[in-house]
């Protein structure tokens, strides 16, 4: 697999008004495993990761009315926000996709949840879908 090929769907981000209110559905009804809850002030969100096989569902709750997630919910309501593709060498992926005429929201990786480095593609370049490149530190055994 080329370093330019995404490794997997790392997670699917879902915008919610309250993680506390929706967790019973995801954990109780869907039987997903709660991995962690954390705040990511740089992104203006509180996130909960739920395990689904080797991928995750990421619930995104806005920390303030100024959060991009709060604005998304105000405009579109709760629901699927983005699809995150697990990549290696995120800088190379950003450069490559820009060379192919795709506009990025983040021209450089920024800190994301779970210690990841992330960069978002502009949805206007992706037929209305918000994609995220997500690079996590490789753990060697």
Give a short account of the largest sheet.
8 strands, mixed
- Based on CA atoms alone, the radius of gyration comes out at 15 Å
Strand segment tally: 8
**Which spans have pLDDT < 50 for at least 5 consecutive residues?**
none
Fraction of residues in helix? 10-25%
Q: Helical stretch count?
A: 3
Gross morphology: globular
Classify the beta-strand content into a percent band.
35-45%
Question: What structural category characterises the helix and strand content?
Answer: alpha+beta
Quick synopsis:
With 141 residues, this protein is α+β, with helices and mostly antiparallel strands. It has 3 helices and 8 strands. It has helices at residues 19-29, 68-76, 90-99; strands at 8-15, 33-40, 45-52, 55-62, 79-86, 110-111, 117-120, 131-135.
Keywords:
21% helix; 3 helices; alpha+beta; 141 residues; 36% strand
Description:
β2 and β3 (45-52) form a beta hairpin. The protein has three helices and eight strands. The chain has an eight-stranded mixed β-sheet with strand order 2-3-4-1-5-8-7-6. It is α+β, with helices and mostly antiparallel strands and 141 residues long.
Reconstruct the topology from this structure.
Blueprint: E1 8-15, H1 19-29, E2 33-40, E3 45-52, E4 55-62, H2 68-76, E5 79-86, H3 90-99, E6 110-111, E7 117-120, E8 131-135
Parallel strand pairs: 1-4, 5-8
Antiparallel strand pairs: 1-5, 2-3, 3-4, 6-7, 7-8
């Amino acid at each position: 697999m080329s370093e330019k090929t995404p490794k997997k769907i790392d997670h699917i981000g879902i915008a919610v008004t309250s993680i506390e209110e929706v967790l019973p559905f995801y954990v109780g009804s869907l039987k997903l495993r709660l991995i962690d809850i954390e705040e990511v002030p740089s992104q203006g969100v509180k996130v909960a990761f739920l395990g689904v096989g080797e991928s995750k569902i990421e619930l995104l709750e806005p920390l303030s009315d100024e959060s991009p997630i709060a604005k998304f919910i105000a405009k579109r309501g709760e629901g699927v926000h983005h699809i995150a593709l697990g990549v290696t060498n995120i800088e190379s992926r950003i450069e490559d996709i820009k060379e192919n005429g795709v506009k990025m929201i983040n021209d450089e990786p920024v800190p994301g949840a779970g210690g990841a480095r992330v960069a978002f593609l502009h949805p206007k370049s992706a037929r209305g879908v918000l994609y995220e490149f997500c690079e996590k530190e490789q753990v060697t055994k």
